Amino acid sequence: MKYVIIGNSGHYPQVLEAMRNGETCAPCAVAPGSRAEDVRALAEKCGCRAYDDWRRMLDEEAPELAAVNPWFADTAGISIECLKRGVHVYSEKPVATEMDALAALEKAYRESPAALGCMLNLNCCAWYKALSGAITDGEIGEVRLIHGQKSYRMGQRGEVYHRRETYGGTIPWIGIHAVDWVLRLGGKCEWVAATHTTAANRGNGDMETACAVLLQMENGVIGTVECDFLRPTGSARHDDDRLRVTGTRGMLEAIDGRVYLENENPRRELALPAGENPFTRFVNAIGTPLADELAREAFEDTRVCLLARRAADEGTIVRA
């Protein structure tokens, strides 16, 4: 499949990983999606042409698919243009940073023959597959509580993170991974409450350093999410992802890429299945019912995160 990369501010390495694994061909061209993006090094790495205008690249290259990951607030607009051209979109997350942009993107998707996927890689990891598989197998009974954690090092954050208008917020940017877990394992969200703070953000403007989200799910399931930029600089790795799911028979806990199950039998570690590359998953899904499901999940994850951001801004509960 002939594809291009627009922007290099997000999770385009998922695409490069698939390329290295031989699961897909290399991109035919790359272009910046936002001001201040320099894609020359990316083009050299991929051995392809670098354009200075992504619209001209689409005109001249006529790709079948575009991996879209510019500055986060620019993602939806570029994706809409691609969909209008019939180009499949593999989008950075969140797929939009404002509700009106999300509505416009959904409309463009419904009117396009092209597919849309999202760079939510963590639901492709081996540990998540082991945990969700154990739930499907009934190991913990009926799910009642879900708690997800996303913790990152702050590091040196660029200009895009300094303003809400370009960044979109920490809940949509980081929290969306854990919100995705809650929605996939807990069902439909009925209402959301949240809080966030910019305290101790080391001069990074509007960037929130810590957030907490409460989601009331259908059938009384409760979901909670914590996300932050407070992971110590001396920690072993950049991120610390954790997921705990409590059911009527037991509980599952994922930490450090390992999964533990405790029910009527003692706590034990589960074997991990093979993970998958999310870009490869999306490419293989095009033209199948899974493609529609991936798009629906991307829209719902984004919508709930934007509602949570609003709840945090306003200090209120927002109906979903």
Task: Describe this structure as you would to a colleague.
The longest helix has 26 residues, at 289-314. A nine-stranded mixed sheet has the order 14-13-12-11-7-10-9-8-15. A six-stranded parallel sheet has the order 3-2-1-4-5-6, with helices on both faces. α4 packs parallel to α5 and α8 crosses α10. By secondary structure, the protein is α/β, with parallel strands linked by helices. It has ten helices and 15 strands. It has helices at 13-20, 40-46, 54-61, 75-84, 99-110, 126-136, 164-167, 170-186, 278-285, 289-314, and strands at 3-6, 29-31, 49-50, 65-68, 88-91, 116-118, 143-153, 189-197, 210-217, 222-231, 239-247, 251-255, 258-262, 268-269, 318-319. The model has no long low-confidence stretch (mean pLDDT 96).
Strand and helix layout:
Blueprint: E1 3-6, H1 13-20, E2 29-31, H2 40-46, E3 49-50, H3 54-61, E4 65-68, H4 75-84, E5 88-91, H5 99-110, E6 116-118, H6 126-136, E7 143-153, H7 164-167, H8 170-186, E8 189-197, E9 210-217, E10 222-231, E11 239-247, E12 251-255, E13 258-262, E14 268-269, H9 278-285, H10 289-314, E15 318-319
Parallel strand pairs: 1-2, 1-4, 2-3, 4-5, 5-6, 7-10
Antiparallel strand pairs: 7-11, 8-9, 8-15, 9-10, 11-12, 12-13, 13-14
Helix pairs in contact: 4-5, 8-10
